[in-house]
Amino acid sequence: MTLSATLPAGMPAPSAPALDLKAVLQRMVREGASDLHLKVGRPPTLRLHGDLLALPLPLLRPEELRTIAEQLLPPAQLREFAEHKEADFAINVPGIGRFRVNVYQQKGTIAFAMRAIAHAIQSVRELNLPSVLEDIAMQSRGLVLVTGVTGSGKSTALAAMVQHINERRSANIITIEDPIEFVHRDVRSHINQREVGSDTAGFAPALRRVLRQDPDVIMIGEIRDMETLDVALKAAGTGHLVFSTLHTTDATLTINRILSFYPPHQQSEVRFSLANALAAVVSLRLVPRSDQPGRVPATEVLINTAAVRDQVRDLTQSLNIPELIREGSVAYGMQNFDQSLMTWYSKGVISYENALYFATNPSEFALRVQGVAGAADQSWDTFEQNAA
Question: Is the pTM higher than 0.85?
Fold first, then answer.
């Protein structure tokens, strides 16, 4: 879909909008903003390095946003918006970039949230993510979940791991996305990207047939329901590598969220399936830099070791994921958020105030900065050596 898309058949051509959307998108990309928000009664607003910045432009009028919707929405999404008052799609603007778009209704008027998608897919290292994510991407099987709040970099991290496979392994990769964000070109792998609404009727029908398409790697844009989760667990448990995302903030909440999809009488069965299928949970938080404009990812990494499997499987145990991450930090490359934050703080990349704000245990983090730590806790040693 391009910015100059034609209107669906039978719809009258609208008058030209006063807002020059192409110019606004051009400025968005030029300044490095992640998102653009359009709503009635406000000027176009960018999200720049995590903060909202209103542009010095006139307040938007209802007819302007209605015209933009009529110009941009593909026929299928136009029908979806008419029925559900919200829709997702992607647009390409020649010479500027690609954008993921959500159009929705608020107070009876149309509003937009547009996210910039980089044309070039950055590598794990270019994104300042831990190198252990490259090892996770090269596993032959298992479920890899990338989690975090909206705008924390989940899709970008997923794209980097899929591209890592694409450049190093001959694999049949099938993605199911709503909408397609990063466009992958075949390098060593054979990649088929399917978009909900245009290439398939929905996640459920696509997932019901995905195992018949000879996949080695499956990427599901997001796990939204039990049916999607069932297919992901089944595929991961039968020798496929499966990537997906969840809107959870850390590994503990991720596992609890997965278990919450199922009723109590299925808890034993799903714990066993998850313990066998899970490969890793990668959780992200974007933290403002202090050394230059921009943000860096604080990253928690849980690897499904034998100790993790045993605890997930055992109904009599309550999850103690933070302790398991600490125990596996040296041998398996696991890390928690506070260790990641300490690395960035020690290198002068983030401020003490932001490190403390994003820390899971601020008081413990503050003590660690002061050099106070338990003598038996060696889980920080690798990070302090790397930061030195």
Answer: no
